[in-house]
Amino acid sequence: MDVVHTKLAELVALVEDARSMPLSASCVVNREDVLGRLREIDALLPETIVQAREVLGDRAGVVEEGRKEAAAIVAAAHEERRRLVEESEVHREAQVDAARLLEEARESAEAMRAEVEDYVDAKLANFEIVLSKTLSAVERGRQKLSGRHELEALGDADRPAPERGDSFLDEPLTD
Question: How does pLDDT run along the chain (175 residues), one tens digit per residue?
């Protein structure tokens, strides 16, 4: 996840540091550099998605472990109750203990389940934020690229073509 954030920060810095076009909000960026960085981010996203799926898989494992532990506690409680039933004086106490153990097991399992769900929810929320930021950055980049092409088309249609050497725009752009 940190690698995706780093790559996005590099991409933002590249655009922020790009040379501005005169009288415009557009800038000049190296297309191959930007596309390369976007491809790197695109390659990292499936890895991030796999990590999120692993977190979800871990959730199921923790819940299953809690269920097994609860079943073991309940089984132990039933065995204890049977043993105590054999002694007539202790029968009532055995029923009380069994009910308490069962309730504790349920509460323990519920607490574990709630904790796992909170953990998974936090991880998914974080992942959602990262994806939202990534999508926003991509949309802004596309809008900037789209706006630059439209402004160039509008500017070229309204003025006659300058003669070679008449404009600083005729000079080749370098990075």
Answer: 678 788 888 888 888 888 888 888 888 888 888 888 888 888 877 776 777 777 777 777 778 888 899 999 999 999 888 887 777 666 777 788 889 999 999 999 999 999 999 999 999 999 999 999 999 999 999 998 887 766 666 666 555 555 555 544 555 555 4
Domain extent listing, the chain:
2-139
Backbone angles phi, psi at 162, to 5 degrees: -75, 155
Rounded to whole angstroms, what are the CA distances from 157 to 48, 51, 153, 154? 46, 51, 6, 5
State the pTM of this model.
0.30
Q: Is there a contact between 31 and 157 (Cβ–Cβ < 8 Å)?
A: no
